[in-house]
Amino acid sequence: MNSTQNNHPPRVTYTLIGLCVLIFFALDATRLPQADLLALYIPENPNFQYWQYLTSMFMHGSLSHLLFNMLALWMFGVALERLWGSPRFLLFYLACGIGAGLIYNAINTYQFGQLTQQLQALGLTPEDLQRLVTRGEYRANVAGLSKELVGYYYIAYNVSTVGASGAIYGILVAFAFCFPNTKLLFLFVPVPIAAKYFVPAIIGLDLLSGITGFSIFGDNVAHFAHVGGGVVGLILMLLFGCGGARRLESY
After folding, report:
1. Closest CA to 174 of 123, 234, 117, 218
2. Global pTM value
3. What's the Cα-to-Cα distance from 207 to each of 193, 201, 231, rounded to whole Å?
4. pLDDT band at 209 (very low <50, low <70, confident <90, very high)
5. Burial of 101 by CB count in 10 Å (0-12 exposed, 13-18 middle, 19+ buried)?
6. pLDDT tens digits, residue range 39-84?
7. Which terminus, N or C, of the chain has the lesser number of Cβ atoms within 10 Å?
8. Per-residue confidence band for 251, with pLDDT thresholds at 50, 70 and 90
9. What is the pLDDT confidence band of residue 26, given thresholds at 50, 70 and 90?
10. Are the CB atoms for 180 and 195 separated by under 8 Å?
């Protein structure tokens, strides 16, 4: 770590990690049905609430999901909070996370609308669509209606999104701006890569996965939320720069 870096403790980073860990295990232990109101749904779903853009950032779908996100938050958040100070870091983190949710929901809403038009063109009535999204029932004798199309529609309506990944991708972009020459290791590439190359590459992979549906990151990954967080982080960095006492080139 560069000795010129600010030495104040990264309280926000540790607090965010603590909240995510506490909420994960609390919800896992209690299994409250109200937890559904904290995850992010598309606006067409009656479970959607505006606060979900914030609360979904503190929920995680599995222990591995939590561990990977918190490790990334610790690795990159500590450096940025020490550089910027706690208030700016917190605002940046929340803006990236909420922005990622907004972008992700905008894309999902558009895709859901396209699927709705496609199903209506096949002759499905509003009542058919309602039965499809609520009970998974559909008329099997409709020409051109496949089980795969029905599955896409049902999932788009019913599946919620959780995780801090959107905010963390914004943090990754900021880290690449402020510490561009820091070498990072990617899981599948055993050669250290400078942050200024690593971060665009990882976001590009997520974008490609979101478009093609093929993912090296595993199933049930909200790729467009990752990309959305990175986009918000990029915009904020272009507007406000690194700031801090001085720009650091290594960490």
Report:
1. 234
2. 0.88
3. 20, 10, 11
4. confident
5. buried
6. 999 999 999 999 999 999 999 988 988 999 999 999 999 999 999 9
7. N
8. very low
9. confident
10. yes
Assess whether pLDDT exceeds 50 at residue 122.
Answer: yes
Q: Which single residue is written with the structure tokens 């550089």?
A: 83
Q: How many CA atoms lie within 13 A of 228 on its CB side?
A: 25
Sorted by where each starts, the structural domains of the chain and their CATH numbers stand as: 11-240 (1.20.1540.10)
Helix 86-121, helix 165-178: angle, nearest 10: 130
Q: Do 46 and 159 contact (CB within 8 A), yes or no? A: no
Smallest CA-to-CA distance from 78 within 166, 18, 8, 167 is with 8
Q: How many CB atoms lie within 10 A of CB 158?
A: 14
Strand partners for 40: 161
Measure the CA–CA gap between 178 and 248, rounded to whole angstroms.
6
